[in-house]
Specification:
By secondary structure, the protein is of the alpha/beta class. The protein has eleven helices and twelve strands. It has two domains: about 150 residues, Rossmann fold; about 170 residues, Glycogen Phosphorylase B (Rossmann fold), CATH 3.40.50.2000. Helix 2 packs parallel to helix 3, helix 5 packs parallel to helix 6 and helix 8 crosses helix 10. One of its GO terms (molecular function) is glycosyltransferase activity.
Length: about 350
């Protein structure tokens, strides 16, 4: 088949979304399909988003340059606004600022006006899709809650899944992620200040919160126990996973969360929160990790448990790896589902 994958491109912003898009395109090509990826520039800001929605809707993706497209598979807002008679949407997330992150008491008039436009845009295009999938149960829940639509959760492996391994436990807790408010590194650092054991925490990643987190570490006098590494390579990240005792992922309302799956592939249990969204689809409290309330004290207790009982923590990690493989997460399953919708 001649397939067109539509997604977004945000210059100089890299992360899991890029791996998702690239992974799908590569998988479709491995199965013998002719695939092109159309990535639309994405810029935040209400006026930019209005123009981007209008631009997506007017694109010709049926027979651009007289080259007939058999099927379109769309992943992101507003790229799923393209029109094609055979259109499958595998939703990574909607424009969250207009849905679960929208706060009417804090919203500007421009965002309030955009919210109704985004909702109308989604109603037009998500309802018309031939097949509708979500990349996690949490994304499917939001579609049901806000748009009244049923979507089948469809999991995919993290980037270079086969390269994650488990090695000697060096006793630290690891959290790799962008340093942004929704990732809640600050909550984890506050928890570290309440631990009763000499737990060590390693954070990797870059983002807007770097200076604030450095100040918080200094405020709690945690300089000897909390390390901000900054950006690390994929190889370094996998090494840090391999030697960790456990992985922390106390994010707020995550869509999917590669960190959970990367931890499971590394045979490491995950410490996450009851309101963390995507990770709670895989982390089972007391079986593959800890799911605790989003408070410093609750997280501190989980950190202490992970540190204190090494054998039990390692058992949780082995259970996590078994659960990952039992889920049958593979690109083969993804391609089969998307092309037979």
């Amino acid at each position: 088949m001649r397939l067109l994958v539509t997604a977004n491109h945000t210059p100089f912003v890299n992360g899991g979304a890029n791996y998702h898009v690239e992974g799908l395109v590569s998988a479709l090509r491995r199965y013998g399909h002719e695939v092109e990826c159309l990535r639309l520039p994405f810029h935040y800001g209400e006026k930019h988003i209005e123009r981007q929605m209008a631009f997506a809707e007017q694109l010709n993706v049926i027979d651009p340059n007289d080259a007939r497209v058999d099927r379109v598979i769309s992943l992101q807002f507003p790229a799923y606004g393209v029109c094609h008679p055979d259109h499958t949407i595998w939703l990574m997330h909607q424009h969250r600022a207009c849905y679960e992150l929208y706060d009417p008491s804090q919203a500007s008039p421009a965002l309030t006006a955009l919210k109704s436009q985004v909702e109308a845009f989604d109603q037009r295009h998500l309802h018309q899709a031939r097949g509708l999938f979500a990349n996690s149960p949490r994304v499917a829940e939001r579609l049901k809650q806000y748009n009244g639509l049923e979507a089948e959760p469809l999991y995919h492996p993290p980037h270079q899944a086969e390269r994650f391994t488990c090695a000697d436990d060096w006793g630290y807790i690891y959290y790799p992620s962008r340093l942004e408010p929704l990732k809640r590194q600050a909550l984890l650092i506050d928890a570290m200040a309440l631990t009763r054991k000499p737990v060590r925490l390693i954070l990797s990643g870059e983002g807007s919160q770097r200076e604030a987190l450095e100040a918080l570490i200094e405020h709690h006098d945690l300089g000897s126990r909390v390390c901000l590494l900054g950006r690390v390579s994929e190889t370094e990240k996998r090494t840090l996973y391999a030697h960790a005792r456990a992985i922390a992922f106390p994010t707020f309302d995550e869509d999917y969360g590669y960190i959970t799956l990367e931890a499971m592939l590394s045979a490491k249990p995950v410490i996450t929160c009851t309101d963390s969204g995507g990770p709670t689809a895989f982390v089972r409290h007391g079986i593959t990790g800890w799911v605790v309330g989003p408070s410093p004290l609750a997280l501190a207790q989980a950190l202490d448990e992970a540190y204190s009982n090494r054998a039990h923590t390692q058992w949780l990690g082995q259970q996590a790896k078994e659960v990952y493989h039992a889920e049958g997460i593979s690109w083969h399953n993804v391609v089969t589902k998307l092309l037979h919708a």
